[in-house]
Here is the input.
Amino acid sequence: MNFFRLTADLMHLMSIFVLLLKIQKTRSCSGISFKTQLLYAVVFVTRYLDLPKWISLYNTLMKIFFIATSIYILYLMKVKFRATYDPSQDTFRIEFLLGACLLLALVFNYSFSFIEVLWTFSIYLEAVAILPQLFMLSRTGEAETITTHYLFALGAYRGLYLLNWIWRFYTENYADLIVWIAGAIQTALYSDFFYIYYKK
Amino acid sequence: PTKPSFHDEL
Here is the structure.
């Protein structure tokens, strides 16, 4: 564990807390893309199938936290605050993302096993999971401050992971091409959002 | 691609 990775994970946690706080405080999930949240839940569930494998207490607790909160957010959006969710704003076609990521995972993976292909699928899917949310923002043209904070925390998390990989490459000789390429694309998507947002 | 020994990142 290094400084970049720990801070990145904490930013990731923070982004989820910000989102939960926004929904609970305003009792509304307006401006939040259910499709993006659904994709994140799929990402966590398919990536953490190795949950029984022990790496560290930190690792296990974080995995449980991410799976639990992502499903809880779906519950809040689809059941508890259902009335505040406007599906007509959330029109991105995620079928294509899911299909393309699955196909890529079947072709480009480290080993052709059930767990490994789904792990790879989750890496590819995470890279593009924010697209429905960005699409929604571009359609409505305006984001609540809190939604911007959410996206900022998520973007910071991704950016810090890039620094973590550079750090690990030099200190541990660590390499993970699949994660690097997907992560670079993911970070680029956020940078694009920040650039547009900053200019406004 | 390069195969990491195991997936230890989140």
Remarks:
- The helical segments of chain A are 3-26, 34-47, 57-80, 94-107, 114-128, 131-140, 145-172, 177-199.
- Chain A touches chain B through 21 residues (CB under 8 Å).
- The two ends of chain A are 37 Å apart (CA to CA).
